[in-house]
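User: Could you check the structure of this?
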Amino acid sequence: MALASQTPYFFFNDEEALEALVTVKTRSARLQLALEEKINELDERLVERIQTQKLLGQVLKYRSGTLFRSINAIPAVSTPSGVIGGVEGAAGPAFYGKFHEQEVDHSWTIEAFDKKALRFLINGKVFIRRMVTHPPLPQRSFVRSAQEEMEPEFITEIEALCASVLRAQPRDARGRFTSFNN
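Assistant: Sure, the predicted structure tokens are below.
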């Protein structure tokens, strides 16, 4: 059985009540659009903070750029429960980013499988081994830490936007309330 949503119907004889309903609908639609735009802007700023600060030495050193390039904003969309957007990264060839973000509390073995040996550099010296045991990896958060740093700023800007949109008078050039579609 599919879920169905029913839209309630309102009948008004009173012009003021109808204008109030139009105002609520218009402000709600405008607020949704404004929130989508604001969340997209905030997500782009978060991506910039992660890339230009966290991944350029503050938390992790820039090496190949794979993790750097994996950080992207997810465009905001309106859903019945709100407006959702975000930032994603550490996927595909940059899968290792999740281990830095979350930590690995145990050691693990790395074995050469398609080559006969592993080659790596430590303190300028080249090592060649068939198998190595990687030590536990401490947490080095680059996404969550940037988000936590920017959260107060984001909340302030979203609250200001909501207040501004909800205070706005949705009227046309002649001073009449605008329709649902504006």
